[in-house]
Amino acid sequence: MFSYQNIPTYQQQLNEGEVSCKDAVAYYLDKIKNASHLNAIIEVYVNESIERAQFLDEKRKAGKALGKLHGVIVTVKDVISHKDHKLSASSNMLKEFISIYDSTAVKKLLEDDAIIIGNCNCDEFAMGNTNENSFYGRAKNALDENKVSGGSSGGSAVAVQAGLCMVSLGSDTGGSVRQPADFCGIVGMKPSYGTVSRHGLIAYASSFDQIGVFANNVEDVASVLEVISGPDDYDSTVNQQIPKEVISSKSVKSNPKEYRIALFKNAINHESLDPEIRKAIFELIENLRKDGYTVEEIDFDLIDYIVPAYYVLTTAEASSNLSRYDGVRYGYRDEKNTEDLATFYKKNRGKGFGKEVKKRIMLGTFVLSEGYYDAYFTKAQQVRNLLALRTKEIFNSFDVVLLPTVPTTAFDAGMMEKDPIATYLADIFTVYANLTGIPGISLPLFKHSNGMPFGAQLLANKRDELTLLQLSKVLLENYKRY
Ligand code: GLN
User: Where do the structural domains in the chain lie, given as residue ranges?
Assistant: First the structure.
């Protein structure tokens, strides 16, 4: 019987002939079939993945050079283009759309021999943190189906949580990889802005969006990141970066280095934080201190400005990014309506987009409008600038910042409808990394008395993924209480 631990072990089994890619695909297809009620995967590429497994098995047997992700079974969020496959952003607007090219991330996965087995459910256009804004309905948390998966990359998180694939790609604009990873009890990482090309990623808020990775362990995150990151002629925000240090599962050895860790007082004492989560983080700090790490509590008094600044700036960018969906060249079109151009646009956009997306387009248009621009958009940009200055100061004195990932464990289903503002506010600990472009990771370290998992989040300086991954390994190996 096939069982999966991590990429290196699986590849060793492949090389030794103990398993084949075909066995692995058969195993996952079966699991996916039995977990269809979780609604994590929108479309499963059954025949294609079987054929690809066969091709890869032959390639290996023929002694050819193998890619770094040889045989690794991956799912991708429904906002990442994969040529000739459905790409709908979980929206009625794009429900018939088939991608005409590969995103750079997918191209790199395939060049390195990965097998993409399906695409994953998410909040519509990646807007949300419950996966309840999806046109296909919500992905369910496999640990308790009455709880949300988190979002927006909820389907990807559940796919890894429920063992429906080995690793998954999501996107993180304000926490959409780290937050569902936290709710599902797995590892979720958002690299620095500009690490992975955004070419072929459906844009939500372009100065925040970044592709991230879900996995069961840090080494798998590193292996995938190594393959998908790097310069790309199609995304100048990647090209402008200094060459990265090589990240690979091998470089992510548990490093005995003495890390200097900062903890934001204003976060850990925030009124929204569940007391049990606070207690677990304090205990973690105590243990780290006992083991000789420097952990200092520092002021971060900008905390209450970050969620408002995030929602002003991202909705502004979204209102512009989503203006391309008008039903003229592609996307939802109401065929009966041809009276005049304005009505044509209104009907297509009115029916194509869901409620949350329309709300955000209107909010974004409002904050950019004459008379309100300075009061909202400019102010939010000022907050973003202050955050950049403060971040620079912090990383002059510290290697990492430790934070909770989310103030609570997974919400009950229905939260988005019942209290949307509360869901926005729950992004308080994740949006900071996107406002400043720094990398962040959520690590499944704890279990709550309500039975649900929760994580701790680490943030590092821009382009310092290696420190983040190395300390993550130390924490998962020595401080896991779950
Ligand atoms: N919850 C945040 C939002 O709705 C983050 C979404 C994301 O990272 N894609 O904007």
Answer: 7-239
CATH fold of 7-239: Amidase signature (AS) enzymes (3.90.1300)
Index of the ligand 1 atom closest to the CA of residue 208: 8
Q: Is the pTM of this model over 0.85?
A: yes
pLDDT at 482 over 90: no
Q: Cβ < 6 Å from ligand 1: which residues? A: 126-129, 152, 171-176, 204, 314, 427
* C-alpha of residue 172 to centroid of ligand 1, in Å: 7
d(CA 242, CA 240): 7
Structure tokens at 307: 């969620």
Active-site residues: which are they?
77, 152, 176
> Do the bridges between strand 211-215 and strand 115-120 make them parallel or antiparallel, or are there none, so unpaired?
unpaired
3-class state of residue 39 by DSSP: coil
CA of 204, closest atom in ligand 1: 9
Distance 129 CA to ligand 1 centre (A): 6
DSSP codes, 283-346: HHHHHHHHTT-EEEEE--TTHHHHHHHHHHHHHHHHHHHGGG-SSSSSS---TT--S-HHHHHH
Which residues of 98-161 form beta strands (DSSP E)? 115-120
Residue 153 CA: which ligand 1 atom is closest?
9
pLDDT tens digit sequence for 320-368: 999 999 999 999 998 776 789 999 999 999 999 999 999 999 999 999 9
Q: What is the pLDDT of residues 208-238, one digit of tens each?
A: 999 999 999 999 999 999 999 999 999 999 9
Sign, Cα dihedral of 147, 153, 157, 163: positive
